Amino acid sequence: MKKLVMIAVTLSTLAGCTTQADRMAKCEAQGISRETCYLAEQNRTAAVNAVAEKQAMENAAAVQHAQEAKVHDPLREASFSSNGLNATLSNGFFSATVNGKKATVKRLNANFYEIHGNGFVISISLDENGITDASWNKAKGREHGLLQVTQK
Questions:
Q1: Is this prediction's pTM over 0.70?
Q2: Contact 84/91 with Cβ under 8 angstroms?
Q3: What gap in Å lies between CA 134 and CA 105, rounded to an integer?
Q4: Which entry of 35, 49, 91, 127 is 20 to 30 Å from 28 by CA?
Q5: Who contacts 149 (Cβ-Cβ below 8 Å, separation ≥6)?
Q6: Measuring CA to CA, how many Å separate 24 from each of 16, 28, 48, 50, 151?
Q7: How would you write the pLDDT of the chain (152 residues) with one tens digit per residue?
Q8: Residue 33: DSSP 8-state
């Protein structure tokens, strides 16, 4: 952000030294046609805008990277249970089972995961201390319920 401000200040200072009309007059005074001077001025403006856009994109990427670096994702093993449903989650939330069969883990964001498998969808909520809530839904139908969570 500081770089962007410094570039903006520098460009505004330098841009204040000469105006477009001054640059056009100097160009025409050298015997160059008005159309060529205008084209050169347009190219100059496009180059300045391209540099500013490139810097803005780099700054945005740096901010996004910094935000991603702050995501806390507790990687713990856990088991979930309720009547007729037993599930496990392990290996840093990358592998899971539902009723003994392999399931897929989908990370929706840093605080929410879903496990899909064996006809069930298990929803898991997290905070900085680990799993806070877990619930299940049948993939087909309206059956649903809460799960008991055991973290290791």
A1: no
A2: no
A3: 14
A4: 49
A5: 78, 79, 80, 131, 133, 134
A6: 15, 6, 17, 21, 72
A7: 677 666 766 666 665 567 888 888 888 888 888 888 888 888 888 888 888 888 988 888 877 776 665 555 555 688 999 988 999 998 777 889 999 999 999 989 888 999 999 999 999 998 888 888 999 999 888 899 999 998 87
A8: -
The amino acid that residue 69 corresponds to is A
Scan for tokens 């780099």, then name that residue.
Answer: 58
Only one residue has tokens 């460009």, namely 11
